[in-house]
Amino acid sequence: MTSTQESFELALSGKRISSNTSFAAVIGDPVKHSLSPVIHNVGFHSLGIDWVYVACEVKEGEAQSALDAMKALGLRGLSVTMPHKIAIASLVDSVSSAAQALHSVNTVEVATDGSLVGHSTDGDGLVASLVEQGVAVDGKTILILGAGGAARSVIDALQRHACRQIFVVNRSLDHAQTAVTLAPSIAQAISIADIAALTEAAANSDIIINATSVGMIKGSEIVSKNVLVSPIAVDLIRPDHIVMDLVYHPIETELLRQTRHRGALGIDGLGMLVHQAALQQQIWTGLVPDVSDMYQAALQALA
């Protein structure tokens, strides 16, 4: 039995599932090792409501079938992960402003009229995670490493939360330039090969966010094939920097280890995962779950 399964069973221990139980689910491929069931079931338990959350593997191209099943089975909420975020955005009945800007949905709400509404809670989850650590983003200059889906959700949220300036650093300058169109008045694209521009951007930034997969464990291996990896040179990190790594497996990446060695505040990516899930539950139920309980359950599952 895996740690995730144990935590899932712990969250449901003593719970009686009946015809009145509300169900929510995550769809994606793969989802076998998803922490979402652990996080959400503990969140529902903290609220004392009769909800259960499960993971459903849905192959690419079957997003419409998943939405049809959601309606047929009476699911109350849906989390969406890769590879379905873009497809679901075009299939739901309406979308929130963030989901519209990103052309991506990670949350589906069943409205009172039965229509399906798509939301994106990833970026706001990151902001909430920073706020929990006493870090406000308004008026701050922020350096973002990466220009993929995670980076885009962060850029959108940061500009909505009134940050002052955003630097987007990526191997492909074209991708970085596409990402900054989400915040054209405050965002600037930089190629990671432009060492002078990267150095200047880091020197002028208050917060550094790694939105790449560098340092992530996939299965039993580090994605980059190098155990000691960091997406940015350690000498660019100052003691007064705040560094957040969206990677949470391992919970302490090489970037965070280097950050703390330099005397700066390092924040792991598990908080973002938990806070975006809490925002999903707020959308579905109108209630705010205990984020601390959810984080501890996720941490236990990772251990």
From TrEMBL:
Q: What molecular functions are annotated in GO for this chain?
A: NADP binding; shikimate 3-dehydrogenase (NADP+) activity
UniProt keyword annotations, A-Z: Amino-acid biosynthesis, Aromatic amino acid biosynthesis, NADP, Oxidoreductase
The protein's matches in InterPro entries, at most eight in alphabetical order, are given as:
Aminoacid_DH-like_N_sf (IPR046346), NAD(P)-bd_dom_sf (IPR036291), SDH_C (IPR041121), Shikimate_DH (IPR011342), Shikimate_DH-bd_N (IPR013708), Shikimate_DH_fam (IPR022893), Shikm_DH/Glu-tRNA_Rdtase (IPR006151)
Pinpoint the Shikimate dehydrogenase substrate binding N-terminal domain residues: 26-108
- One Pfam family, please name it: SDH_C
Every copy of the Quinate/shikimate 5-dehydrogenase/glutamyl-tRNA reductase domain together lies at 136-214
Has keyword Amino-acid biosynthesis? yes
Q: Which residues form a coiled coil?
A: none
Specify the enzyme's EC class, one word.
oxidoreductase
Alphabetically, which GO biological process terms does the record hold?
amino acid biosynthetic process; aromatic amino acid family biosynthetic process; chorismate biosynthetic process; shikimate metabolic process
**Which Enzyme Commission number(s) are listed?**
1.1.1.25
Domain SDH C-terminal, first and last residues per copy: 269-299
Task: Quote the SUPFAM superfamilies the UniProt record gives.
Answer: Aminoacid dehydrogenase-like, N-terminal domain, NAD(P)-binding Rossmann-fold domains
Q: What is this protein called?
A: shikimate dehydrogenase (NADP(+))
Which organism encodes this protein? Answer: freshwater metagenome
